[in-house]
Amino acid sequence: MTLKTERDFNYGREKLYREQIVTTTDLVEFKNDLLQELSKILVENFKPGAKKWLKSAEVRKLLKISPGTLQSMRINGELPFTKVGGMIFYEYQDIQKMFNRNKVEVNSRLD
């Protein structure tokens, strides 16, 4: 099968070739690939219940510590923070990093 002239199919636009035609199957495959990539990004970046920024009260509740302890952690540089308009915020990833820094590895031996 041969294609008709450029003018018949494209109304004066660029010439259309058979391999440039997008089929329904192509669109379905593209949709599935796109959905897989979006799902992957969402899973990597948005964990259920984990917010990116936490207020002081949320951090105290999460760590079960007093306001004074949290203040000491800020002063000693143990936990980075951001202050905006008098409110102090902590990044969830920084809290996780603090836990990893303070992790104690215990080697258990079977006697």
Automatic annotation (TrEMBL):
InterPro entries linked: DNA-bd_dom_put_sf (IPR009061), HTH_17 (IPR041657)
Protein species of origin: Carboxylicivirga linearis
PANTHER family for this protein: HELIX-TURN-HELIX DOMAIN-CONTAINING PROTEIN (PTHR34585:SF22), PTHR34585
Pfam families assigned: HTH_17
Helix-turn-helix domain ranges (all copies): 53-102
Listed SUPFAM superfamilies: Putative DNA-binding domain
Stated name of the protein: Helix-turn-helix domain-containing protein
Superkingdom per UniProt: Bacteria
